[in-house]
Specification:
The protein has 500 residues and is α/β, with parallel strands linked by helices. The protein has 2 domains: 305 residues, Rossmann fold, CATH 3.40.50.620; 155 residues, Isoleucyl-tRNA Synthetase, Domain 1 (Orthogonal Bundle). It has 19 helices and 17 strands. The strands form 5 sheets. Strands 1, 2, 3, 4, 8, 12 and 13 form a 7-stranded parallel beta sheet that branches. It has a 4-stranded antiparallel beta sheet with strand order 6-5-7-9, with helices on one face. A hairpin with a 4-residue loop joins strand 5 and strand 6. The longest helix is centred in the C-terminal third of the chain and has 31 residues. The protein is elongated, with a radius of gyration of 26 Å.
Length: 500
Amino acid sequence: MTYYITTAISYVNGAPHLGHAYEAIATDVLARHMRQRDPDVFFLTGTDEHGEPVADAAKAQGMEPKALADQNAARFKQMAVDLNISNDFFIRTTDAEHGALVQEVLQRVHDNGYTHKGTYEGWYCPRCADFKVENEILDGNLCPIHFSPLTREQEENWFFELSRFQDRLEALFDEHRSFVMPVVRYNEARSFIESGLQDVSLSRARMHWGVPVPWDPGHVFYVWFDALLNYYTALGYARPGEDLTSKFWPATFHIIGKDILKFHTVFWPALLMAADLPVPEHVFVHGFLLGADGRKMSKSLGNVLDPSDVLETYGVDALRHYLIRDVSFGSDGTVGFDGAKARYEGELANEYGNLASRTVAMLHRYCDGRVPAADTDPELAASFEGLVGEVIELIDAAEITDALERIWLRVRRANRYVEERAPWQLAKDPKAHGELHRVLASLAEAVRVLSVLLSPYIPEGSAKLLDALGSPDLSLAGAGFVKHTLARPVAELAPLYPKR
């Protein structure tokens, strides 16, 4: 079994913001969880560096496009490091290997007879690098994403004959209902197809910042077709001397935002079909992070939040936990610094962190710094029964927020168990030491299982707790609630999430 997952690639016309962080974190949660199930996982992220938005941004700053791309790609790479993202490769669409493979695939599309030359005229958004069809245009001739005026563009282009894939795309959606997830986005994409597909511009003649069209070098490929192919091309050169394409393609999950739905759920599968390539298994479409103004967080709207604000104050686990916990994956959600603070203090510090600290401290105080060899309490064990299966089922549907909620219910149950059993009272009664050992063995097992399941979400804190317990194994196969047959030493544990 293999598992290949990707984020969308980010435009380098500006620095990263919280919206980019959100998608990277959510995708990382899925990738980390799948590694716990021991499939061969490949996780791709990267940057989209060609096209008009980048060229225009570079010109405005008095820079060459490649210089701006280099500058901002480095920022996105650093963001991945800062967010503890476990990607296996970071693709840049200015990579020479990517460009060569783009030409190879699109030459195949051309040779298969799915292109023609013609004149394109339409309403164009430079920020989206996209021509808008009539039902996408807002009153006042505005872009529905950026609310900026559209321009009327006309030029000679090569066209991709998308219209010829009407029936095949309808069949794909009918036969593979989970191709686009969640269902509201499936319906949106299906509706776009049913409205009637038109051929789309494949090249630009006036634009020079892009991948040259091999059969017509005076043109470069329209940035979207260059970018969409990154998920396929990366496998050809991500590991030096090894082609991973046959192993990992088609991809398991593409994670994208809803503003680029038509490209990834309509244009993309049609292009793959035209090149005789299999389509991905699932495209999961998440919602927007909304700023205080209620609009999508966007560089061009100027309402972005910098993830470093939360990182510097509360740390990476706090940002990861907050974004997945507060914004139901697949839906829009308003975010802000106050929400991150509330989740940090209320859940990471007071619930999970406090549970960890109390458990480890009591093991040192009452059990000589060891997890006692004792049976676990069947009542607490029953609370965890089926949890791993629940989490697996939800993660398989990319329902990462719901999966986190199921885990957190057990965090709260374990905290209640501490109060119900009151180990400090049991320790006062010499006749209750057997029960004390059972309670503390149960608590140690509870925090171990919780930490294994939480590790995709909060990898730093969970790893510290598991190391303290002497149980670094993250595999889900070992995440059942089990008896401790051997006493195991426990290390001292500093507060995982100290009060700020």
